[in-house]
Amino acid sequence: MRLAGWEERVLDVIADHQGRPFEWGGRRGGSDCHMMAMDAVEAVTGADPYADERGRYRTAIGALRRFTARGFSGLGDAYAAVLDEVPPSLARRGDIGLVQVADASGRLAEAAVVILPPHAYGKSEQGALRLPLSAVTRAFRVE
Fold first, then answer.
1. Degrees (nearest 5) of the Cα angle 112, 116, 117?
2. Could you confirm whether domain 6-141 is CATH 1.10.3720.10?
3. How far apart are CA 19 and CA 143, in angstroms?
4. How far apart are CA 62 and CA 95, in angstroms?
5. In this structure, are residues 114 and 121 in contact, taking their beta carbons and an 8 Å threshold?
6. Helix (H), strand (E) at residue 13
7. β-strands 108-116, 119-124: how paired?
8. Phi, psi of 141 (to 5 degrees)
9. Where are the domains of the chain?
10. Exposed e or buried b for every residue in 3-38, given b needs 16+ CB within 10 A?
11. pLDDT, tens digit (0-9, with 9 covering 90-100), for 62-103
12. What integer pLDDT is reported at residue 27 of this predicted model?
């Protein structure tokens, strides 16, 4: 269930995270796409389903290890375990999505975004992301 005042809190989450440097796991005050997405989920619902992962990884490989230890192959599996997946065309304000972005080595990687039509906002190793909704490859309903 979405809490009263969630929209303003989601906007605050996006502004806060986009102002921080990229840092896997956020151990020193930075943030990554997963942390931003989970802060948005918490702003909407009052709960972070992966609060126990905060600060527990320092690299992309470390993050992947944390999720594979839970039986997930990546962010999509992790989000599908706690949120209902919907077609990207049906995503609405405050939902979470996934996009493909270039990582530090130039390879495509999955990144979480917060959906606020007409854009999706997130983080990558290159910094803040603001992408068109057409870039969203998977979407998850936040309720």
1. 120
2. no
3. 26
4. 26
5. yes
6. helix 6-18
7. antiparallel
8. -75, 130
9. 6-141
10. eeebeebbbebbeebbebebbbbbeeeebbbbbbbb
11. 999 999 999 999 999 999 999 999 999 999 999 999 999 988
12. 83
